[in-house]
Amino acid sequence: MNHSILVTGGAGYLGSILVPELLAAGHRVTVLDNFLFRQNSLAHCCADPNFELVRGDCRDESLIGRLLEDADVVIPLAALVGAPLCKLDPVGATSTNLDAQLMLLRRLSPDQRVLMPITNSGYGIGEKDRFCTEETPLRPVSLYGIHKVEVEKALLDRGNAISFRLATVFGMSPRMRLDLLVNDFVYRACTDRSIVLFESGFKRNYIHIRDVAMTFLFGLENFDRMKDQPYNVGLSDANLSKRELCTVIARHVPELVVFEAPIGEDPDKRDYIVSNEKLERTGWRPRHDLDRGIVELLKGYRMIRNSVYGNV
């Protein structure tokens, strides 16, 4: 079944991968984005007659109301993403990540379906050697996580929706992000051949961006049997500490030197391991492991150099 899908924030890191996949599957897709980062990451979609693009703000209620008139599925990606950015701009984070999302949910009709990305950072600091499942109490430690947890509650209370609690995402995208942990560490390994670790034993789960995109398509295809539930989305063999992640990267960058700082704190205090069994029981399987993603990133970083103020 083909759908008319509204994707807010569709020109971002995830949307740049997801939107072409939705179009390839035969769906009609309208993207709303404010192009905050001046990206042209969906330029290759413009020739598709099933693609429409609206430049605007997800906080504009009248605009959202008009766009919802033609949508039977909504995928709200628009957000200020990540704990550091939300800490830098808490007012913008609150208006975008919380107020705008709650407004969107209020404007939906009961029959409109929602597939929403939520962060598994809502688990906060987990218990040692105990997996976080979808029944584990949520204890977010960042403003980003707090907003996501509140929105997820409203989403599931509203119903006719699926919540995907995403692990830390990695991989190349037309709208690239270097601030994500794997992407950052591989970039440092590639350019500096060294990484300095704070709180190196802190663990988290990881997932490739293309597997995230395919998770949304999987949710669309299996909506009726998955709806009104949250699902952890991650690699079950990649519940790794930062130190362990560096060991994996070093398999591909043998000259990498890792230093552990005796002082200092990571601004993102997440520390937990996650079970993805609930999603796997539906038949979902990831296609990209961590090693494959690291190889991909090393190729991508031959194109990307963050050196606007350097001579090299």
UniProtKB/TrEMBL annotation:
Pfam (any one): Epimerase
Name this protein carries in UniProt: Nucleoside-diphosphate-sugar epimerase
Stored InterPro entries: Epimerase_deHydtase (IPR001509), Lipid_A_modif_metabolic_enz (IPR050177), NAD(P)-bd_dom_sf (IPR036291)
NAD-dependent epimerase/dehydratase domain location: 5-234
Record SUPFAM superfamilies: NAD(P)-binding Rossmann-fold domains
Highest taxon above the source species: Bacteria
Coiled coil region boundaries: none
